[in-house]
Amino acid sequence: MLAARATRPGAIWLLAAFVALCVMAAPAAAESSGQRADALLGQMTNDEKLDLIDPGAGTPRLGIPSINPADGPNGIGEGAEGVTAFPNAVNIGASWDPRLARAYGAALGAEAAATGHNLLFAPTVNIVRDPRWGRAAETFGEDPFLSSSLVAPEIRGIQSRRVMADVKHYALNNQEYGRFGAPLLAAAVDVEASPRTLREIYLPAFEAAVGPGGAASVMCSYNQIGGEYACQNEELLSILKDRFPGFVEPDSTLAVRNVIAGFNAGVDQFALGSLPGNERQTIASALAGGQISQERVDDAARRILVGMIKAGAIDPVVAEGPAGTKAHRRLATRISTEATVLLRNRGNALPLGNRDRSIAVIGHDAGDGTQIEEGGSPAVLPGRDPITPLQGMRRRAPRGTKISYAKGTSGVVPLPLVPPRVLTPSSGPGPGLYGEFFTDRAPTFSGASATTRVDPTIDFKTTGSGGPSVLQPIPGTSAGSVRYSGTLTPPETGTYRFSLTAAGSMKLRIAGEDVISGDAEFVQGGEGGFPGAPPVSFQGTAHLTAGQPVPIEVEYATNSSIGGAELHLGWQLPAKIASLQKRAVKAARASDVAVVFANDLTAEGMDRPDLALPGDQDDLIEKVAAANPRTIVVLHTASAVTMPWRKQVKAIVEAWYPGQQSGTAIAKTLWGDVDPSGRLPVTFPNSDSQGPAAGPHRYPILSYDEGLEVGYRWYDANGRRPLYPFGFGLSYANLHLGKGKIDATKHGWRVRVPVANRSARKGTGVVQAYVGFPSSAGEPPQQLEGFDKVVVGPRRTKPARIEIDRSDLRIWDEAKQAYVSPRGRYTIGIGTSSRDIEQRFAIKR
Description:
about 850 residues, alpha/beta, TIM Barrel, Rossmann fold, Jelly Rolls, 4 domains, ten-stranded antiparallel β-sheet, 34 strands, about 25% strand, disordered N terminus
């Protein structure tokens, strides 16, 4: 069975079965790592223990190396050269393949070792509660069981290369907005979730990471939980550390606001710092003053040693070779192909074949602007130039195939500045816009203004000697926020595109209508950003009439910016938009098939404002589809997007953020060299208003009052039909599930289901098992409890085998503060997605 059993959501640390699993897995290793740690600890001075706690310095005389971390959920970041930009982790989630997850982890670990690192900030296992989350691309999706099934093998892969895995971000880190405080340094966002929700939805993947996965360390998150910072929350950290011998470290700087409180709560290692700084000195002084015990210092140092020993990082890391190897590029291609999800394929438009002698490749995302990865700290600088979809298709196309290319759009990038000549201030001499500047860094725009002035363009940026400066005012002022007002006189009639590129909170309003709104902690893809990160710009459109002035307002506040004060207002004229689209339509009309590539943009430090494709990409797809009835859309997105054009196109392919081998992978998929074997790890909503986090009280104000109804559970419980359900994906082959059989085993049940391939080509299916609990349990209608990914040859039948363990069928009882196994009738639904259940079995407990 490909899906190794993961502990069921809810079966956290108190489960006897889990404890037994940990003990049985490696009792000798656990004992030897503890004994070795104790032996080393007994030889260390207190100064050496404090050095290990912060800044992670080793003890050469005892052979203890320093801790040298690297960011790396998708590859080695921070500008490392010669490394591989792998597909983002959402691709592993979409693969539904634990063996692929282990290979992914082993490659990440090998590249960390090759670049001299012995700790990797990876993997990210936070649940995708809302697809707008900016870091959705570096997770495994919305389901605890799927995430648990994938995280353990990935960690084992990382640590097989003697590199420590640091699983993150513990816990309830499910949005970017407010994580640092808004404004910056204010209290971070405070999450409210019931104990049952925490235990059954948001902690199981962490359990699998430190249990079966054996992770050396865990990173606690920035947010507050119930009024206490996660890294200072002793109750939260004790859930983890009661069964976890490794160490806890905080996310960078702002995760710990009080070093003594954080250390006493359970933070062991401060390599990434804290808000007060001087952690080593603070701990030493607190130890001398009795605020911290010697026992806690010894415990922290021991946990760090145990983590290093268990992962093999206590000994010198020996690189097996260079980082960006040919084998790793082949693996990157394989991951991308196995993760690609075929969402629609009317009339067997795919795979491409001999009938497709002329192909129009369309989209900024198809060329040099292709979206291969998430921005922020997970961004990776590819060791080689990414293979774009256009390049990959031209290399793969059969001889004699004509491939034309048209951008069709300028892409989701900062647009040229709106020029002064079209702007008239609401007060004062022009041209430009009138600005009222306020000392407040929050977007309240209240009280007396610090100053006023007319700016000819909206284009400013504060920089220090080393790049962007934190907590700096808007240039030329002492202000932290500004409201610009005036009129814009359009030179043409038509639909204009606008962009706001900023570090902070931003809003553009034209003719009284909101066109753009967003918040970003820093500007991506520019000077001072993370190397490899794509450019980020919030986009919007407005239809305007030539010569008719319209009111325009721009609001900006530095708010949660860690990149200083930066704001740029850009636009694109209708004639330019129409020219790009006209060339794309012409290419599409002249070709047998049109393939449109479209993308979103996400990053650490920002959430998406909505689920639409940004810019003018939806409009482009509709125009191309009208010109060529055989239009195929390939999406490079972090998570779900809406598709107003869905029924106008023949095929839709979700390729996620596919890494540097993007073009090779998508070409192999489009021509059918491989079957699109990915399945959705997240539900795709019909609209922004559909889903568990819809509504302002749930996002961005984090009340988790949807409880257990996360992802597909919400759709099932509320009788709502999504655009595409969790687990969905099509194959090029004609696959069918036969009649299954269920048998009792010593530990639970085994389901066998024949998968028949009635076509002449090999196909891949993912058979999924969803368990429905007795009504008395108070659970959502069903939840994933097993799956098997099977490859079936032409005209062959192959069985899928799924194991369901009795210990998985438990829930958290808040009154008893324990896990219980409800008695009654359970159902096991077998199907190919959460909504495509073809047969059910009844069992009793």
